[in-house]
Amino acid sequence: MALPNHDDPTAGDVLGVYLRSQATAFLRALRLHEADAAESGEAAYGLRGAARRIAGSLSTFRAVTETRWADSLRTELVWLSSTLADEHAYAARLSRLMEALQRLSGSPDLPAPRGGAGASGAAGALTVGSARAGALLERQLTLARTRAHSATLQALGSSRFHAVADAVAVLASEVPLDPVAARGRIGDVLEPLAELTATRLAGAVSALPAAQGTPYAAHEDASWHEVRRLLRVHRYAREVLGGDVARLSAAGEALDLHRDASEAAAASATAARTPRIAPATAYALGVLHADQRHAVEAARLSFHHIWHPAPAMP
């Protein structure tokens, strides 16, 4: 491995600056969370974002760090970000479904219910069923959110979390690096490692089903969620290197919408399987499920348009 000139930043310099900045962001969000309950949502968002960026960078650039330390901290940060995400996810899902029910209740383009009388029958059935469907979804998702909130509070009060916070506090001032790899040139060390994330992402994208011409299939959601995860890791790698991530961010937003819609569709399907619900409630949940499936398909198409843009007209 060629060594850099003393005037050039090394791989360790660049990675260290990024990790220290994210550790500082983590600690800032933690102070906000502890100081202001009204800002707990924003603070949790900041904690999740910083934790994901540190964990993703430690995964991509593991060879540049002390690997045992990196593996341990990455595992703990993945646990923390996942725990913090659950409460927000349930709240956002409920809000999304309530807004969709309200929008659909005024839509003239509804499928006719069994035994219904065309558009007027569909609108009537949805009006009758939407209130009950909304109440059912609110009970189920509020319960899930309450459990997630309890899990978050338990996690943030645990010795495990305090150990993570202590490790991040140390990271804010000192990054444990491999003494050889960290001295290497950016192009020799960091760029090839970042390119591996691009290769994995490209492989996952190429394996996705066609965005058009095929009906929605829920079992395909997992492959899209994996692309979203790999895209996020790749974007963080490019952030470390100071690259332009605008296209990656736009593609990630499309996949975020895909995730939100697919999970909302799953929630409406779960609610529809509740025993002994009224036919009008089941109809409203079925319309809601179809609406979210359409949103999934739209998000998939949007991602493909971003990732494979049409050639410019001469």
From TrEMBL:
PROSITE patterns: CHAD (PS51708). Residues 8-312 form the CHAD domain. Gene3D superfamilies: CHAD domain. It holds the Pfam family CHAD. It comes from the Bacteria. InterPro entries: CHAD_dom (IPR007899), CHAD_dom_sf (IPR038186). This is CHAD domain-containing protein. The lineage of its organism: Bacteria, Bacillati, Actinomycetota, Actinomycetes, Kitasatosporales.
